Amino acid sequence: PSLSTPNQAVISISCFSTPITRFDLSFDTQFPSESSHLFRRLLPFPSPSPSFPSMFHSLSVHSLIRLSFTSDSVSSLNVKMSSLLLPLSFLSFLPLSIAHSQYIPGGSSLVEKDILNKIQKHYDQRVRPPATNASMPNGPVIVRVNIMIRMLSKIDVVNMEYSMQITFREEWIDRRLAYDRFFDNESDYPKFLTVPHVKKNLWIPDSFFPTEKSAHRHMIDTENMFLRIYPDGKVLYSVRLSLTNSCSMQLQMYPLDVQVCNFDLISYAHTTKDIVYEWTEIKPVQLKDGVGSDLPNFVLDGIPPVNKECTSHTNTGSYDCLRMQLILRRQFSYYLVQLYAPTTMIVIVSWVSFWIDMHSTAGRVALGVTTLLTMTTLQSAINTKLPPVSYVKIVDVWLGACQTFVFSALIEYAFVSYQDSARQHEKSMNANTVRKAQKRRNQMEMLEDVDMYQPPCTCHLGETRPPTWSEKFRKYFTKPDYLPARIDFYARFIAPLGFLLFNIIYWSSCYIMTNAVEKELNITNIIRNLEE
């Protein structure tokens, strides 16, 4: 008989043409060595003899035995063969029973391929695994998730998105894949089987990321994924992904804002009756060293995992969900140097107009227009880095106030110039009236017949000296009687005091609103818990 099982016995008998002078009997055994003692007990020749070599009594795995008989007649050969074929026929069925045993004996050299072939013989990847909780036969499969963030970059405020590279891991129990039942001893089977390409052969949760805009797997040098099967049926699936995710950013507090970007995980087809997601108990979210420290405008405050806050309820059922939150705090130092300091200096430069003589029209107009255009250009450059939102941001309040102060300086000079022109026109009109009256008076005096002669007066005026610094100081800080000059005098003090008062109100409001937003988003508690 010839068997196709791994443990088989092949018996071949060859007879030569008559007259028979030699008979050859050969068989190849592949059954376990512990069965050799049973074979020896069944042999008709209990001791070595010329007809049965001594190696026949040390039967082992994969041994080939050839028996040679010499006989003068067929009848004498039949006697010997009848006593030999009976034990051989029984032994041919012994390996078959061993092959169908549920356990693989200790010391077997079964390789991973053989285990996988044995597992997949009755495995259907189209059917989800049995319930994780054995007490609930129809319960869901519990999938435990772990995420390691390898890189975080490209936080785009305009498009409200961010990019990151992660190692995504899922664990679940599939008892159909357990292979410890094939072995007698625990030390005989491997600790786990690593399978690199199994998506077509094994069941894997149909997880997807709702906030994902674009993503790809890494394929260099090979596909960066693996699947491990443990003896008890636990499965670990790991894959490296690069994703660009959307983030609904609230920019009311820009550039003092704190953004909370949600990264959700949900099953596409299996409802809560089929799959339930849970975070792993130990380090559900991991960060590679240095992640978040090299972001240009943000600092990563924390990544807390959140449970059961994003379960999706649709017409087709309820789908379980896990959520990871990225807490991104904008670095204010960049905006202090690039935004607040330049705009403050532009406002201060616009105040120089109050110290320039009111009759220097070209200088004051050029200064006012230049500062106003610079402020407008800076405001446009800042707005190009932000999305066109419908609400007012605190940066809009700052820029609007700075532009108002610059524009007020230009308007102040226009008012002063108008008042000075009006005063000069009034003074000119009064001078013309005086000149006409004096002319008429002189004409009347010429008609008088008075013979009076007065010699011309020779006067010597004293030499004029330049004004001292104290006189100049008093000139600028002494309230003048002339109204246009008095307006410039008041503006020199009112503008700085007004800007200082605005800064006090602005920064106090920012502090209060920032704390209110963090309290509403529960960010303060999250950061405290992460630090602990």
UniProtKB/TrEMBL annotation:
Pfam families: Neur_chan_LBD, Neur_chan_memb. PROSITE patterns: NEUROTR_ION_CHANNEL. Residues 339-452 form the Neurotransmitter-gated ion-channel transmembrane domain. Belongs to the ligand-gated ion channel (TC 1.A.9) family. Glutamate-gated chloride channel (TC 1.A.9.4) subfamily. InterPro entries: GABAA/Glycine_rcpt, GluCl_TM, Neur_chan_lig-bd, Neur_chan_lig-bd_sf, Neur_channel, Neuro-gated_channel_TM_sf, Neuro_actylchol_rec, Neurotrans-gated_channel_TM. It comes from the Eukaryota. Keywords: Cell membrane, Chloride, Chloride channel, Disulfide bond, Glycoprotein, Ion channel, Ion transport, Ligand-gated ion channel, Membrane, Postsynaptic cell membrane, Receptor, Signal, Synapse, Transmembrane, Transmembrane helix, Transport. This is Glutamate-gated chloride channel subunit beta. NCBIfam families: LIC. One of its GO terms (molecular function) is extracellularly glutamate-gated chloride channel activity. Residues 112-331 form the Neurotransmitter-gated ion-channel ligand-binding domain. It is found in: Postsynaptic cell membrane. Signal peptide: none annotated. It is a multi-pass membrane protein. The chain crosses the membrane at residues 332-356, 362-382, 394-416, 489-507. One of its GO terms (cellular component) is postsynaptic membrane. PANTHER family: NEUROTRANSMITTER GATED ION CHANNEL (PTHR18945).
